[in-house]
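Format notes (please read before filing issues)

Several people have asked whether sequences and structure tokens are stored in separate files. They are not. Every record keeps both together, in the order shown below: the sequence lines, then the token lines. Line labels are part of the format and must not be stripped during preprocessing.
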Amino acid sequence: MERISKIAKSSDQGLERGFSTKVRKDSLAWKSTWQLSLLSIPGFVWFLIFSYIPMFGIIIAFKDFNYRMGILASKWVGFDNFVYLFSSNDAVRILRNTICYNISFIIIGTICGVCTALLLDSMKKRVFIKVYQTAIFLPHFISWVVVAYMTQALFAYDGGIINNLLKSFGKVPVTWYTEPRPWPVILVIVQLWKTIGFNTLIYYGSIIGIDSSLYEAAAIDGASKFQMIKKITLPMIKPTVIILFLMSVGNMMRADFGLFYYITNNDGALYTVADVIDTYIYRILKLSGDITGSSAASVFQSVVGLFLVLMANGIVKKYDAENSLF
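Then the structure lines:
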């Protein structure tokens, strides 16, 4: 018994020493990083005010909201707003457009972003790299309204650049804003032109962070440039690609309002190929002033987005657990 008590006592002492050591390590870690923690406070406050506190308004999606009665006193209707929203004849169209466009943006944006970053990395002179980086990244800061005017300059029936070229070759001008067929391609190209710079910058930052000794060893072994890209560059930037992919999947049910509203001039003739959830809800809100439909759509987008992120992360975790989010 005495031996057992001594063993238990020594075990308790070991646990106490381990706990005290952990406390000291945590204290030292806090002392060395408290400045960074202070820098994170503005971002935390911003998310708290504009993202988490407004989440109380989610209950509007489940009520027959009355401005006079307020949120809490309005009648509870459950899922009636969701049924009304997705029982319309336009529900299939807006869901199809939203999902298909976002899938196209994710796939094409990822491929083009990675390829552009690889091209930048292959350049030898830093001057050209900076020039091309600026030229590619600049559209990211241009408003969709400005981009819409640029698009009109290209596709306007009278005086548009493309129609003027068609006339010069003896072709008949096209009324682009009443012809739905080419707009899926146009919208993908415009979105890619505006957003590729941001993705390219992230991928390029990951590429230049790769240890150069890996490329030197591969060159000594006689590896070609293509083999280096395949065996070193792409595997090393895979975590960045996966993270951006998962973030994009979370927004699968959301569409860029500026792209689909301003670029198409909100023309009714293009609704079959350019009407998405965000533009559809905006028109309902503008015509009726009822915010319950928009609230229901927002809740639907958030819930489905969360489900898609969890599902995509689960797939990634199954095949590559190290690169999953959690």
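For reference, the curators noted about this record: The CA atoms of residues 212 and 218 lie 10 Å apart. The radius of gyration is 27 Å.
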